[in-house]
Write a structure and sequence with these properties.
The complex is a heterodimer of chains A (247) and B (46). By secondary structure, chain A is mostly helical. Chain A is built from 7 helices and 2 strands. A two-stranded antiparallel ribbon of chain A has the order 1-2. Classes of the chains: A mainly alpha (247), B mainly alpha (46).
Chain lengths: 247, 46
């Protein structure tokens, strides 16, 4: 992990890993969604709407995983001052926010036929909405410190660590409070879901996770390339200024 | 009276939204990366 904090070493790895993750992820996610739509059976009580699960559950997982990525990178930035840690946190924010929004939207669409309502202010839904607002706040704070020329500002990193408090709240909300949302169906080593539903769900989770990884790598490469171009242009402008100065 | 809802409509809208957002994000990230790396390479040559 510490070895990868070197930008040159990271770029060597990311150059082949980015397209590999994206292509493998897109193939797996497409196969899983097609399986979920056309092959997997309808559920006894929920009928056809259970198929939304193959999109909703991976989105929920990646919404939370994205913030854990921000928190882990923030920790590395504050403790070890890794040059890539802040970039990794910035790269996780947008895909995390997108998957959180997809989770909320697909959950709402699923809730209408399953619960008879688009939205309820219960523990799980509200804490997930709070996660979306945390992402938007983090993105705004990160851009503001960047615009102010505080590339190494600790504020986004501290926010990233504090916001991680919401992750166990989301996870345990269905156990701590009486909620409309069902309790977890998959726990460590155990599943309450039948194999017909579980297999396409697991493949969708893997596929979307690879897509997420590919997007994070692509965004890290873009941020790094922008920083390198900026630094080079600034250096050239400085050199030109020194050359033209009379004394 | 019980409201009649077509379950497939909800499924299709959810898939359209989720797949569209995912593909849009992949395309945007990839093109942004390519553009940034081209800009960096151009700055090297200048």
């Amino acid at each position: 992990m510490h070895g990868l904090a070197n930008p040159a070493r990271f770029l060597r790895l990311a150059r082949w890993l980015t397209p590999t993750c994206l292509v493998a992820g897109l193939v797996l996610a497409t196969a899983a969604l097609a399986w979920g739509l056309f092959v997997a059976p309808a559920e006894q009580l929920q009928g056809e709407t259970v198929r939304i699960m193959y999109l909703h559950v991976p989105s929920a997982w990646l919404g939370m995983a994205g913030w854990m990525g921000i928190a882990g990178a923030s920790f590395a930035e504050l403790v070890w001052r890794h040059p890539l840690a802040g970039i990794a946190a910035r790269a996780c924010a947008v895909p995390g926010a997108v998957f959180t929004a997809v989770c909320l939207a697909t959950g709402s669409i699923w809730g209408r036929p399953a619960w008879g309502t688009w939205w309820v202010w219960d523990g799980r839904l509200t804490s997930m909405l709070v996660l979306l607002f945390l992402y938007l706040g983090w993105i705004a704070l990160s851009r503001a410190s960047e615009d102010a020329g505080q590339g190494q500002s600790a504020a986004p990193a501290i926010f990233g660590l504090l916001g991680a408090i919401n992750i166990p709240i989301i996870h345990y909300s269905v156990l701590w409070w009486k909620t409309q949302h069902q309790p977890p169906s998959i726990t460590a080593g155990q599943s309450a879901i039948a194999g017909d539903f579980l297999w396409p769900l697991m493949i969708a989770m893997l596929g979307f996770t690879l897509i997420f990884g590919g997007v994070v790598l692509a965004r890290m490469r873009a941020i790094l390339a922008d920083q390198q171009a900026e630094a080079r242009l600034r250096r050239k402008a400085l050199d030109a200024g020194n050359f033209e100065a009379p004394f | 009276m019980r409201e009649v809802v077509d379950a497939w409509t909800f499924v299709i809208v959810a898939y359209g939204l989720g797949v569209g957002a995912t593909l849009g994000m992949v395309a945007w990230s990839w093109t942004a990366m390519r553009r940034a790396e081209k800009r960096r390479d151009a700055s090297r040559k200048r």
